[in-house]
Amino acid sequence: MSNATVCFSYHFDAVSTWLWSYDSWDAPTRHSRGVFGAEIAAHRLLDLHDAYDVDSTWCIPGHTIESFPEICAEVADRGHGVQHHGWTHRGPSTYESREAEKADIERGIDAIYDLTGEKPTGYASPAWDFSEHTLEILLELGFEWDSSKMASDFKPHYVYDDWNAPEDGPYDRGEPTDIVELPASWQRDDFPALTYTWSQPHRMGYVSEDSLFRRWYDQFDWMVEHVNGGVFVLTLHPQVIGQAHRLSRLEDLLEYMSSTSGVEFETMDAAASAFRAEHPDPESFRDEYFFSHRS
């Protein structure tokens, strides 16, 4: 792996986030935010990545692929990674059964295969939510990596399973599986900080954009200085980051990262594959990896 890797991860929810995460089926003004993301912002972001020749990964719900097939095809045609983000944008823990959750994931796989001719290798959970069945389903369906968990900030690792959290005993993290984790972080996500919604389940307001981008610069700088082989996953949503005034800030950040020595831009699949090549045995890759490093 390179000294530092940056993965631009676009969660291309479009309308699906408003339908399933916010139960806004009869709210066309909310839908319009997703339409903006699909019909305007996504094109802007693709052009920006073309200008700098930077790969990115688009985690796309099957609903978005089927609702906006032209722009999703353009994402794939321009060489960016297309990975799994559900068919709906429904949190896995909200399904009434394992079968229903698996059916949604399988439908998402089919949508991506119809778009790209390939099955997705990676998964980013809607709202970074897991049910008790999610990991088992991902293993059963052959996924190779995930980006939903937060046991690390910049160090890839293997996802653990069979954890135990008894009320009257110590926490047991469980055992590593064969799925690589590319750590996600709410601190590197544009949606909570920059998207306002005025009803449940969330009430989010606007924060200073200077403060948010400063946080991303600071985290990137710290990773480059302290974490050898670190992976910086920046999670963005076209309908949020693709607003005109934010594109210039994003371009400045991209330029800054590009000018930093030892930094490479990769798709998330490439970053996960590089980690697996360096650490091929999940059983030998345990907590000692984290605690043996100063960072």
Automatic annotation (TrEMBL):
Superkingdom to which the source organism belongs: Archaea
GO molecular function: hydrolase activity, acting on carbon-nitrogen (but not peptide) bonds
GO terms classed as biological process: carbohydrate metabolic process
InterPro entries associated with the record: Glyco_hydro/deAcase_b/a-brl, NODB_dom, PgdA-like
Residue ranges of every copy of the NodB homology domain listed in the record: 16-266
Pfam families: Polysacc_deac_1 (PF01522)
Transmembrane stretches, start-end: none
PANTHER family (alphabetical): POLYSACCHARIDE DEACETYLASE FAMILY PROTEIN (AFU_ORTHOLOGUE AFUA_6G05030) (PTHR47561)
Protein name: Polysaccharide deacetylase
Protein species of origin: Natronorubrum sediminis
Lineage of origin: Archaea, Methanobacteriati, Methanobacteriota, Stenosarchaea group, Halobacteria
